[in-house]
Amino acid sequence: MATEITVIRHGETMWNLQKRIQGQRNSKLSENGILQAELVAKALAKREFDVLVSSDLERAVETAKIINKQLLLPHKYNLNLRERSFGIFEGKNFAEIEETYPVEYRRYKERNPEFVVPGGESIQQMYERVTSEIEAIARKFKDQKVLIVSHGLVLEMMMYRTFNIKLDEPRAFSINNSSISSFYINEGNWFLKEWGVIEHLVSLNVLSEL
Questions:
Q1: Which of 63, 88, 120, 173 could disulfide-link to 37, CB 3.0 to 4.6 Å?
Q2: 122/99 Cα distance (integer angstroms)
Q3: Has this prediction a pTM greater than 0.90?
Q4: What number is the average pLDDT over the span 136-149?
Q5: Is there a catalytic annotation at residue 10?
Q6: CATH number of 3-85+122-202
Q7: Average pLDDT along the chain
Q8: CA 3 to chain centre
């Protein structure tokens, strides 16, 4: 037996549309993002879960609440499932970051796992935060089915952990808003069940990649 953890990336936000780095700041769902959340809620209504856990950031909470209108699960908030903290980059697009913080932007693009964005956190710090919390959730809800609503880089860290990908390797897979991914976790062993399911979104053209 293992804990089955299904993870949903939040719906599209206004800052996603503006291509601004959100990090741990709040940005409301766009109209498209609300529709995405409603569609994933319908898809998840065909499945069974024991508990819903979400990041406490507004976009994840809003998505989770839309989903939970269908599922009516106990809903818990978890700070450790937040997006990466991007410090001085938050609220800016990449062109603004490169112009304002050229040295920090260059170091960020190098993807050094130890590089801490000023005022934020490194890839390594986020990886440790996310993977340790996911394992704690798996132990707490042992052999149960957990639904998580979180963020793109949380999903990225989970994939890197599952397949032992080096943190300095660039991501080679997509993470769509309101996609469905599932993992089995048992005593430190991680297995991927499904990744990036978007069947519920494709026909209505409501996709928005990270």
A1: 63
A2: 21
A3: yes
A4: 98
A5: yes
A6: 3.40.50.1240
A7: 95
A8: 19
pLDDT, tens digit, 9 for 90 and up, residues 47-79: 999 999 999 999 999 999 999 999 999 999 999
Contact yes or no for 1/197 (Cβ under 8 A):
no
Whether 8 contacts 40, CB under 8 Å:
yes
Tokens of 70: 């269908």
Domain ranges of the chain: 3-85+122-202
**Cβ burial, residue 123 (10 Å; 0-12/13-18/19+):** buried
Looking at residue 47, the DSSP 8-state letter turns out to be: S
The predicted structure's pLDDT at residue 204: 60
Share of the chain above pLDDT 70, in %: 96
Q: Which of 10, 121, 133, 200 is catalytic?
A: 10
The predicted pLDDT at position 207 comes to 55
Q: Which residues are part of a known binding site?
A: 9-16, 59
Q: Residue 54: which of 34, 70, 74, 71 has the closest Cα? A: 74
Q: Which two tokens stand for residue 117?
A: 């964005």
Task: Compute the distance between CA of residue 50 and CA of residue 138 in angstroms, rounded to an integer.
Answer: 12
Active-site position among 38, 62, 83, 90: 83
The answer to whether the CB of 22 falls within 8 A of the CB of 210 is no
